[in-house]
Protein: FAD-dependent monooxygenase
Amino acid sequence: MDVVIAGAGPVGLMLACELGLAGIRPLVLERRAVARPDSPGMAINATTVELLDRRGLADRVRAGGLEWPQAHFAHLMLDPARLRERHASTVLVPQAHLESCLEARARELGAEIRRGHEVTGVRQDGSGVTVYAGGDELSCRYLVGCDGANSVVRRLAGISFPGVDAPFHGIVAEVDADGELMPYLGAHQYPGGVFTVGPSGPGLLRVSTGEFGVQGWDDEIPATVDEIEASIARLVGHDVRIGTPHWLARWHNVTRHAERYRAGRVFVAGDAAHVHFPLGGQALSTGVEDAVNLGWKLAADLAGRAPAGLLDSYHRERHPVGARACLTTRAQVALMHPLLEVSPLREVISELIGYDDVNEHLVRMAGGLDVTYAADDDRPLVGRRFGAVPLSTPDGVVSLAEVSRAGRGLLLDLSAHTAAGTDPGVLAAVSGWSGRIDVVVASPTTEIPADRLLLRPDGRVAWTGGRGDGVQGLKEALQTWFGDPAA
Structure:
């Protein structure tokens, strides 16, 4: 087989969808025998929503969630409505629902998912990987570890995972909504840590506590109602009853980052590559974009049309993003504890958020919208991604997300060169990449300050050009990212 993915969480399932869209039928191995009933994650931020929208999945996910047009930095509220660019809103949605949507789509695209199969061994050579899991010996060309912070794949591949485990005790639970908890809706800071209460579904609340400087417990020791209620009492100063939870789980203040995202034919993504304090859906958005970045590159290699170095670009592009996510979440934690010492700083930053530029910078940072891949090309748009910009085409108004759902590259011509379509010279330039590149002609828009753009399958800009630029730069970008043209 071509690709084995370890882990059927959001990252592994998103990667399975990306590969399936390109005609690759991956095998997903999940150590749990059944889909997890709990949902530790509750928010998908703008980056994740936009990536799902590019694949036609956002509406499925939104159907089980709630739009939340807000953002925060260290629980200091921001205003996404003041952004100068169009971007999606955060959606509050249980992780179990997100995984269900992604699994259904992965199966539609031909992925096989085997539950109760934990990876126990990995051996690789120059031609492939042998994976031992669930008593089976499997041969594949590539293995991707999306198996979480305690990744077996990462360990067996010899990839180190340096970082810091800070003393911290966190518990999260889902409970039926009742009057005793309603006064605590929102995120609350106390000298000892944080206490949050928020809606997680019809008649349900998500309750979590996090105490800094306290030695935590191992995940193998089940959390109890008495334990979380004692934690609440220590934080708020009096007893608060939560009722009988549907489930409880532990969470941690751990920051770790893999030294490399590739070891030969083995890759890591999501929490297997980077783990940090859970704030604002940043962990999920970073992991899902890992999958979107890697998926089309693996597919190109397996089809025999990947240019030299394409697979190596996964580490080169995503490793700095993982490092940035670790940095920005640590910065937020530093603004939360010790509260008595950082309160004056929180007040000053709250004042600064009143300035549009500061608000925008923090919204983009917290939502993963500030990511731009470094490129040799010095054109300002190269390496960045646009949201669901509306496009006026000869066939009507569509969004940039809608014309990206095939998962191929996209040449977007906004030059209005002719009423009938794009410049014949440009069409001739891309003809050798037919089947790898779609061409869309639309009217100019102030939301995209360029006449023409070449977008990679992950939506990142690979090239921009004006009407008088010619096609040589376009051809070079096509060859750099999509390989040699067909004969």
Observations:
- The first helix runs from residue 10 to 21.
